[in-house]
Amino acid sequence: MPEAAPNMPLRLAAARRWFDDALMASMRAAGEQPLTSAQGQVFALLDTEGTTVAELARRLGVTRQTAHQAVHGLLGLGLLEQVPDPSSARNRLIRITPEGARVHRRAQATLAVIEDVLADRIGVAEATALRTALALPRGEPPVVEAP
User: Fold this and answer.
1) Mind listing the domains of the chain with CATH numbers?
2) Half-sphere exposure (CA, 13 Å, Cβ side) for 47?
3) Sign of torsion over alpha carbons 112, 116, 121, 123
4) 90-147, pLDDT tens digit by residue?
5) 143 burial class (0-12, 13-18, 19+ CB within 10 angstroms)?
6) Sign of torsion over alpha carbons 57, 62, 66, 70
7) Which of 33, 48, 98, 113 has its CA 20 to 30 A from that of 79?
8) How does DSSP assign 112-126, residue by residue?
Protein backbone atom coordinates (compact mmCIF):
# COMPACT_ATOMS: atom_id res chain seq x y z
CA MET A 1 0.00 0.00 0.00
CA PRO A 2 1.51 3.39 -0.93
CA GLU A 3 2.29 5.76 1.90
CA ALA A 4 -0.36 8.46 2.28
CA ALA A 5 0.61 12.11 2.09
CA PRO A 6 0.84 13.80 5.49
CA ASN A 7 -2.51 15.18 6.61
CA MET A 8 -3.02 18.72 7.91
CA PRO A 9 -2.45 17.88 11.61
CA LEU A 10 0.88 16.20 10.77
CA ARG A 11 1.95 19.17 8.64
CA LEU A 12 1.01 21.61 11.42
CA ALA A 13 2.89 19.52 13.98
CA ALA A 14 5.98 19.46 11.76
CA ALA A 15 5.81 23.23 11.31
CA ARG A 16 5.47 23.67 15.07
CA ARG A 17 8.52 21.45 15.64
CA TRP A 18 10.48 23.57 13.12
CA PHE A 19 9.71 26.72 15.13
CA ASP A 20 10.42 24.98 18.46
CA ASP A 21 13.75 23.60 17.21
CA ALA A 22 14.79 26.98 15.78
CA LEU A 23 13.86 28.78 19.00
CA MET A 24 15.66 26.26 21.24
CA ALA A 25 18.82 26.30 19.13
CA SER A 26 18.80 30.09 18.89
CA MET A 27 18.27 30.60 22.63
CA ARG A 28 20.99 28.05 23.43
CA ALA A 29 23.38 29.81 21.00
CA ALA A 30 22.60 33.10 22.77
CA GLY A 31 23.60 31.57 26.11
CA GLU A 32 20.05 31.22 27.42
CA GLN A 33 18.72 28.16 29.20
CA PRO A 34 16.56 26.41 26.57
CA LEU A 35 12.99 25.69 27.61
CA THR A 36 10.69 22.94 26.48
CA SER A 37 7.76 23.80 24.25
CA ALA A 38 5.38 23.24 27.18
CA GLN A 39 7.41 25.58 29.38
CA GLY A 40 7.33 28.22 26.66
CA GLN A 41 3.56 27.91 26.41
CA VAL A 42 3.25 28.58 30.13
CA PHE A 43 4.69 32.06 29.61
CA ALA A 44 2.17 32.85 26.87
CA LEU A 45 -0.75 31.81 29.08
CA LEU A 46 0.11 33.55 32.36
CA ASP A 47 -1.89 36.59 33.42
CA THR A 48 0.22 39.56 34.52
CA GLU A 49 -1.14 39.38 38.09
CA GLY A 50 -0.55 35.62 38.21
CA THR A 51 -2.41 32.43 37.37
CA THR A 52 -3.14 29.30 39.38
CA VAL A 53 -1.71 25.96 38.24
CA ALA A 54 -5.27 24.67 37.83
CA GLU A 55 -6.10 27.52 35.44
CA LEU A 56 -2.84 27.02 33.56
CA ALA A 57 -3.69 23.33 33.14
CA ARG A 58 -7.10 24.27 31.73
CA ARG A 59 -5.57 26.76 29.29
CA LEU A 60 -2.88 24.29 28.21
CA GLY A 61 -5.39 21.46 27.87
CA VAL A 62 -3.35 19.20 30.16
CA THR A 63 -3.67 17.69 33.63
CA ARG A 64 -2.80 19.70 36.72
CA GLN A 65 0.13 17.36 37.29
CA THR A 66 1.54 18.07 33.83
CA ALA A 67 1.09 21.83 34.29
CA HIS A 68 2.70 21.61 37.73
CA GLN A 69 5.73 19.82 36.24
CA ALA A 70 6.22 22.56 33.63
CA VAL A 71 5.83 25.27 36.28
CA HIS A 72 8.14 23.47 38.73
CA GLY A 73 10.99 23.48 36.21
CA LEU A 74 10.51 27.21 35.57
CA LEU A 75 10.40 27.93 39.30
CA GLY A 76 13.72 26.09 39.65
CA LEU A 77 15.25 28.26 36.91
CA GLY A 78 14.08 31.42 38.66
CA LEU A 79 11.86 32.39 35.71
CA LEU A 80 8.60 32.05 37.66
CA GLU A 81 7.61 32.58 41.27
CA GLN A 82 4.73 31.46 43.48
CA VAL A 83 2.88 34.05 45.53
CA PRO A 84 -0.22 33.83 47.74
CA ASP A 85 -3.52 34.32 45.94
CA PRO A 86 -5.22 37.31 47.58
CA SER A 87 -8.65 35.92 46.63
CA SER A 88 -8.11 32.45 48.12
CA ALA A 89 -6.03 31.27 51.05
CA ARG A 90 -5.84 27.78 49.47
CA ASN A 91 -4.39 28.85 46.13
CA ARG A 92 -1.05 30.22 45.01
CA LEU A 93 -0.49 32.28 41.92
CA ILE A 94 2.29 31.66 39.43
CA ARG A 95 3.91 34.86 38.14
CA ILE A 96 6.80 35.73 35.86
CA THR A 97 9.92 37.02 37.63
CA PRO A 98 11.95 39.92 36.20
CA GLU A 99 14.44 37.36 34.85
CA GLY A 100 11.58 35.37 33.34
CA ALA A 101 10.25 38.53 31.68
CA ARG A 102 13.70 39.21 30.19
CA VAL A 103 13.96 35.67 28.81
CA HIS A 104 10.38 35.83 27.48
CA ARG A 105 11.09 39.13 25.68
CA ARG A 106 14.20 37.61 24.13
CA ALA A 107 12.28 34.53 23.02
CA GLN A 108 9.54 36.69 21.47
CA ALA A 109 12.14 38.76 19.59
CA THR A 110 13.85 35.56 18.45
CA LEU A 111 10.54 34.15 17.19
CA ALA A 112 9.97 37.33 15.17
CA VAL A 113 13.33 36.80 13.45
CA ILE A 114 12.51 33.12 12.86
CA GLU A 115 9.21 34.19 11.25
CA ASP A 116 11.20 36.54 8.99
CA VAL A 117 13.45 33.64 8.00
CA LEU A 118 10.37 31.58 7.15
CA ALA A 119 9.01 34.45 5.03
CA ASP A 120 12.34 34.66 3.20
CA ARG A 121 12.22 30.91 2.52
CA ILE A 122 8.59 30.45 1.49
CA GLY A 123 7.76 33.98 0.34
CA VAL A 124 6.36 37.00 2.16
CA ALA A 125 2.91 36.64 0.59
CA GLU A 126 2.75 32.96 1.55
CA ALA A 127 3.87 33.64 5.13
CA THR A 128 1.31 36.44 5.43
CA ALA A 129 -1.43 34.19 4.01
CA LEU A 130 -0.46 31.43 6.43
CA ARG A 131 -0.56 33.79 9.42
CA THR A 132 -3.94 35.13 8.26
CA ALA A 133 -5.40 31.66 7.66
CA LEU A 134 -4.30 30.41 11.07
CA ALA A 135 -5.99 33.41 12.74
CA LEU A 136 -9.38 32.81 11.09
CA PRO A 137 -12.16 31.53 13.36
CA ARG A 138 -12.70 27.80 12.98
CA GLY A 139 -15.76 27.40 15.20
CA GLU A 140 -16.30 24.43 17.44
CA PRO A 141 -14.52 21.21 16.43
CA PRO A 142 -16.88 19.20 14.23
CA VAL A 143 -18.07 15.69 14.97
CA VAL A 144 -18.04 13.85 11.66
CA GLU A 145 -18.37 10.34 10.27
CA ALA A 146 -15.74 9.07 7.90
CA PRO A 147 -17.12 7.71 4.61
Assistant:
1) 36-131 (1.10.10.10)
2) 10
3) positive
4) 889 999 999 999 999 999 999 999 999 999 999 999 999 999 999 999 999 999 998 8
5) exposed
6) negative
7) 113
8) HHHHHHHHHHH-HHH
